[in-house]
Structures are given as C-alpha cells and as structure tokens.
C-alpha cells in the first residue's frame, strides 16, 4: 500500500511519480457530513480533483457546511441535503457513497455500546443507497464496522442489489496508525512505511502484520505484543485524551479520504491500487467478513490478495479474534433481518 498525497491541488499530481489517472466526472456522497468526521472528510474530498460533485447529507446543520466548503476555490461542486426527504437527491448519480454517520465514542464506551444507535442509522442510509444508487461503491466508517458492514450487505440483499465487491468497511485508520507508530519506533520516515492490518476494526480483531511491514523491521516478541496492543487500543487513546469531547475524527477523516482516493483511482482504471478493507471474503476460512489487502479497480474489489506467512504471534492473534469477530458479524446480520 504505497503512501501518496491524499488530495490534489493544481500544483500537485494525484500520485507523485506515477502517471495521473484520467479525470472523469465523479459524484461522491458523504452521509453524515455535518459530524466530527464528516466535516474534515468533506473538506479533504473538496480538495481532491477527482471529485467533480460532492453531495453532503445529514439530518441537520449540513447547509452551512455545504455553503462554507463551496467557497473553497476548487472545481468540485458542493451541494447540501437535509433530512430523510432529501436523501434520494443526495444519492442520485453517486458512484461512491461514504458513510461516517452516527454517534462518536465517549470515555468508557466500547464500539459495541454504539451498536443499537449506529446500526439503525446505517440500515436506513443503506436502504436509501439501494433505492437511489444501487451500483455505487459504499465505504462504511460508522462504528462498529464489524457489524455495520454486514448490516449494509443484508439490506442490499433484500433489495436484490448486493454486490459483495462494492460494500467496504473503512479500516484504513488502523493501517495509518500502524504506519505512524512503527515509523516512530524505528526512526523511519512515515511515508516509507506500510504495515498491513487484517481482521476487523475493534480491539483484538485488529491485527497488524508487523512481520510483513515495508521496509522490513525487527520486533522481539515482547515488542511485537506491545506495538500490537497500542495499535488495537489507539482509538481509546484518543477518546481519553479528548476527555469526553470526542473520538478520533481528524485522523479518521484523513484515513477515509485516503481510502476514498484509492477507490476513485480504481474506478478511473489506475493499476495496482491496494488497500486493506473489511469486506465479505473467503480469504480466511471461518470468517464471512474479514479485513485484508485487496486490489481495487473499476468494479470495486478486483482481487483479494493472500495473507502471506504469519508469525506464531500473528497466528495466535488470528485465532483469538475468531469468537469476537464472528459475534460482531452475527449481531449485524440479526439486526438487519429482525
């Protein structure tokens, strides 16, 4: 997963050192655009020249966000949509739908605590996607991702429009954190570091493959355990540092903008666009949904890449997450079908 600029100005190419993707008309819809993640994410997407139309949706306070962003001198057209009656308008013609909608974590709150609120929000929004832009790629940020992705899939199945290669959970923040923490620990430049992160997007289901980091780095078993634990608990680190004032919003917006750019590059036919994402997958037997490295293309996920050899510590982590991840997936499916 090559590091690259996530936004493009007139002076800066989309991907330094590579041919530029063909710029086509791309409409992106952000559902939950007035929230703590939605606002900075929308700003980053407004700066991405592959996005020609940016539709911002929320249940309130989104008109001001749209007006504010529309003053930025990029060529991306920004429109705002408020409330359920305007959801269809926000979604019509969208090729990529990014969903950060939901309530944030507060101190002492786990991702599971968010389930009942955010699950209902995601279900409603995905019903809108099924009706208005069934061929769009859906990038889900709303936590708990381990459950909200299966919820979205079940909604689309009921509507007869489900494409498992186009429903993706955004786990890029785990990769971004792993890259940052490993670079700091080993004295490397963060732009040169790439650490695959597999599994899910909560606690022990987050498994960084430190043994497959680029460039190769060495960790003792004790160091690997400590680094893995920090990556798994990084979200809590932010929640506690903000002392009740919010969760990881800016870093999540950055990670989501990076993932959105990768999806758009894939849609434009750019080659070798690789990201980790949480999707319905057969990469690891026993897991219906799993985050791993995929190659993105015009149809979403073009190829699932193999996990590669795991260390004993990583294999143990894979075994430990099975019960929790399976429980999260089952909860999402049950919620969608009740």
Automatic annotation (TrEMBL):
<dbReference type="GO" id="GO:0006099">
    <property type="term" value="P:tricarboxylic acid cycle"/>
</dbReference>
<comment type="similarity">
    <text>Belongs to the LDH/MDH superfamily. MDH type 1 family.</text>
</comment>
<dbReference type="InterPro" id="IPR001252">
    <property type="entry name" value="Malate_DH_AS"/>
</dbReference>
<feature type="binding site">
    <location>
        <begin position="32"/>
        <end position="38"/>
    </location>
    <ligand>
        <name>NAD(+)</name>
    </ligand>
</feature>
<feature type="binding site">
    <location>
        <position position="252"/>
    </location>
    <ligand>
        <name>NAD(+)</name>
    </ligand>
</feature>
<dbReference type="InterPro" id="IPR001557">
    <property type="entry name" value="L-lactate/malate_DH"/>
</dbReference>
<dbReference type="InterPro" id="IPR015955">
    <property type="entry name" value="Lactate_DH/Glyco_Ohase_4_C"/>
</dbReference>
<feature type="domain" description="Lactate/malate dehydrogenase C-terminal">
    <location>
        <begin position="171"/>
        <end position="335"/>
    </location>
</feature>
<dbReference type="GO" id="GO:0030060">
    <property type="term" value="F:L-malate dehydrogenase (NAD+) activity"/>
</dbReference>
<dbReference type="InterPro" id="IPR001236">
    <property type="entry name" value="Lactate/malate_DH_N"/>
</dbReference>
<dbReference type="Pfam" id="PF02866">
    <property type="entry name" value="Ldh_1_C"/>
</dbReference>
<feature type="binding site">
    <location>
        <position position="177"/>
    </location>
    <ligand>
        <name>substrate</name>
    </ligand>
</feature>
<keyword id="KW-0560">Oxidoreductase</keyword>
<feature type="binding site">
    <location>
        <position position="111"/>
    </location>
    <ligand>
        <name>substrate</name>
    </ligand>
</feature>
<feature type="domain" description="Lactate/malate dehydrogenase N-terminal">
    <location>
        <begin position="27"/>
        <end position="169"/>
    </location>
</feature>
<feature type="binding site">
    <location>
        <position position="105"/>
    </location>
    <ligand>
        <name>substrate</name>
    </ligand>
</feature>
<feature type="binding site">
    <location>
        <position position="143"/>
    </location>
    <ligand>
        <name>substrate</name>
    </ligand>
</feature>
<feature type="binding site">
    <location>
        <position position="58"/>
    </location>
    <ligand>
        <name>NAD(+)</name>
    </ligand>
</feature>
<dbReference type="Pfam" id="PF00056">
    <property type="entry name" value="Ldh_1_N"/>
</dbReference>
<dbReference type="GO" id="GO:0005739">
    <property type="term" value="C:mitochondrion"/>
</dbReference>
<keyword id="KW-0520">NAD</keyword>
<feature type="binding site">
    <location>
        <begin position="141"/>
        <end position="143"/>
    </location>
    <ligand>
        <name>NAD(+)</name>
    </ligand>
</feature>
<comment type="subunit">
    <text>Homodimer.</text>
</comment>
<keyword id="KW-0816">Tricarboxylic acid cycle</keyword>
<dbReference type="InterPro" id="IPR022383">
    <property type="entry name" value="Lactate/malate_DH_C"/>
</dbReference>
<protein>
    <recommendedName>
        <fullName>Malate dehydrogenase</fullName>
        <ecNumber>1.1.1.37</ecNumber>
    </recommendedName>
</protein>
<dbReference type="GO" id="GO:0006108">
    <property type="term" value="P:malate metabolic process"/>
</dbReference>
<feature type="active site" description="Proton acceptor">
    <location>
        <position position="201"/>
    </location>
</feature>
<feature type="binding site">
    <location>
        <position position="118"/>
    </location>
    <ligand>
        <name>NAD(+)</name>
    </ligand>
</feature>
<dbReference type="InterPro" id="IPR010097">
    <property type="entry name" value="Malate_DH_type1"/>
</dbReference>
<dbReference type="InterPro" id="IPR036291">
    <property type="entry name" value="NAD(P)-bd_dom_sf"/>
</dbReference>
């Amino acid at each position: 997963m090559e590091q690259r600029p996530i936004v493009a100005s007139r002076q800066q190419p989309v991907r330094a050192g590579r041919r530029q993707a063909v710029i086509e008309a791309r409409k992106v819809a952000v559902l939950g655009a007035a929230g703590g993640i939605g606002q900075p994410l929308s700003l980053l997407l407004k700066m991405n020249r592959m996005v020609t139309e940016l539709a911002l949706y929320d249940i309130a306070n989104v008109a001001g966000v749209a007006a504010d962003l529309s003053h930025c001198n990029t060529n991306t057209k920004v429109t705002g949509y408020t409330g359920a009656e305007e959801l269809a308008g926000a979604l019509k013609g969208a090729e990529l739908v990014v969903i950060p909608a939901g309530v944030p974590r507060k101190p002492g709150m786990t991702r599971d605590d968010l389930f009942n609120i955010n699950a209902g929000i995601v279900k409603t929004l995905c019903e809108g996607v099924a009706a208005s832009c069934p061929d769009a790629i859906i990038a889900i940020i709303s936590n708990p991702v381990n459950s909200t992705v299966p919820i979205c899939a079940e909604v689309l199945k009921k509507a007869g429009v489900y494409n498992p290669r186009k429903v993706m959970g955004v786990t890029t923040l785990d990769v971004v954190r792993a890259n940052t923490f490993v670079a700091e620990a080993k004295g490397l430049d963060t732009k040169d570091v790439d650490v695959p992160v597999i599994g899910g997007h909560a606690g022990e289901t987050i498994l960084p493959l430190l043994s497959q980091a680029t460039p190769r780095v060495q960790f003792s078993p004790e160091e690997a355990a400590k680094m893995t634990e920090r990556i798994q608990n990084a979200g809590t680190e932010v929640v506690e540092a903000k002392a009740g004032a919010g969760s990881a919003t800016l870093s999540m917006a950055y990670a989501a903008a990076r993932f959105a750019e990768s999806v758009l590059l894939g849609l434009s036919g750019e080659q070798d666009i690789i990201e980790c994402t949480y999707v319905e997958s057969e990469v690891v037997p026993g897991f219906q949904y799993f985050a791993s490295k995929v190659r993105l293309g015009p149809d979403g996920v073009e190829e699932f890449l193999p996990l590669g050899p795991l260390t004993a510590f990583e294999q143990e982590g894979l075994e430990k997450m099975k019960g929790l991840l399976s429980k999260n997936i089952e909860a999402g499916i049950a919620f969608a079908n009740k």
